[in-house]
Specification:
- The strands form two sheets. Strands 3-2-1-4-5-6-9 form a seven-stranded parallel sheet, sandwiched between helices. It has a two-stranded parallel ribbon with strand order 7-8.
- It has ten helices and nine strands.
- It has one domain: NAD(P)-binding Rossmann-like Domain (Rossmann fold, 3-Layer(aba) Sandwich), CATH 3.40.50.
- It has about 270 residues and is α/β, with parallel strands linked by helices.
- Helix 9 links the parallel strand 7 and strand 8.
């Protein structure tokens, strides 16, 4: 077991012990993958967890989690639907939200021709922007007063190395095999720019904004992806990634607000 993994596993317990039960986190896209792991870890740490999903009925994963933990509530938020967001925001009016985790997103496979030059699907581009770029901004705006009313006052965006212009333009920075997905890369770059602007706008209210690359995370949706040996070598288990991200979120301050970090704690070049 690597030293980094051992350190991060230790952080799962450290972060859990250092947080108060009054802290509240809202997570979008919490029914699977990174979002579900956030919900599990924060719930185990004693936080009040508002786990959201976009489906008509609550997914089994969240129903099970809510049965396991009394401090988990399940709500509906489709980040592309203003009415869905507004309805849940009205329901939670007056509830302080210490950490707002904008996790919901779409990726697409590396082989999908609809994201390749020469066969681009421009209708699909609108979906990627709506989910990955404007969606997190809609949610952040809708729940902003909840964040301001909290003790921690933190807004988080789960981004990607693929959204870095520097990484995409320099040879050797992107793992071999991670080919360009036009719409995914574009939408994550837009997310990064959007949340750097947000960090400036909310600073006066004492709100900090974190932008994070979670790593090439091993989750169910990418289990079927064709991956190179280099990609496998840099991939990370979801529990390790989320534990490290939680530590970064705990350490998030106005001094580093609006900067882009990998889950390892290394700042990512724009």
């Amino acid at each position: 077991m690597s030293t980094f993994r051992l350190l991060v596993i230790a952080l799962v317990f450290t972060v859990g012990l250092s947080t108060a039960s009054a802290d509240t986190v809202l997570i979008t896209g919490a029914n699977s993958g990174i979002g579900l792991e956030f919900a599990k870890q924060y719930a185990a740490a004693g936080w009040e967890v508002i786990a959201t999903h976009r489906r008509r009925l609550a997914p089994d994963s969240l129903t099970k989690l809510a049965r396991q933990y009394d401090n988990v509530s399940v709500e509906t938020i489709d980040v592309t639907d203003p009415e869905s967001i507004a309805a849940t925001a009205a329901k939670l009016a007056g509830t302080p939200i210490d950490v707002l985790v904008n996790n919901a997103g779409i990726v697409g496979t590396f082989e999908d021709p609809r994201q390749k030059f020469g066969s681009l699907d421009y209708d699909l581009a609108q979906q990627f922007v709506a989910v990955n770029s404007t969606g997190p901004l809609r949610v952040s705006e809708a729940f902003y007063e909840n964040v301001v009313a909290s003790q921690q006052k933190k807004i988080v965006a789960i981004s990607s190395l693929a959204g870095s212009l520097a990484v995409n333009s320099r040879k050797g920075l992107m793992p071999k095999g991670m080919t360009t997905r036009y719409w995914y890369n574009m939408s994550k770059a837009a997310l990064n720019l959007t949340f750097t602007a947000l960090a400036k706008d909310v600073a006066a209210d004492g709100v900090s904004v974190g932008i994070y690359h979670p790593g090439l995370v091993r989750v169910e949706r990418n289990a079927s992806y064709r991956t190179t040996d280099e990609m496998k070598a840099v991939s990370v288990d979801v529990d390790v990634s989320v534990a490290a991200l939680r530590q970064l979120i705990q350490e998030l301050t106005p001094e580093v607000s609006g900067r882009f970090f990998s889950y390892t704690g290394t700042e990512v070049p724009w």
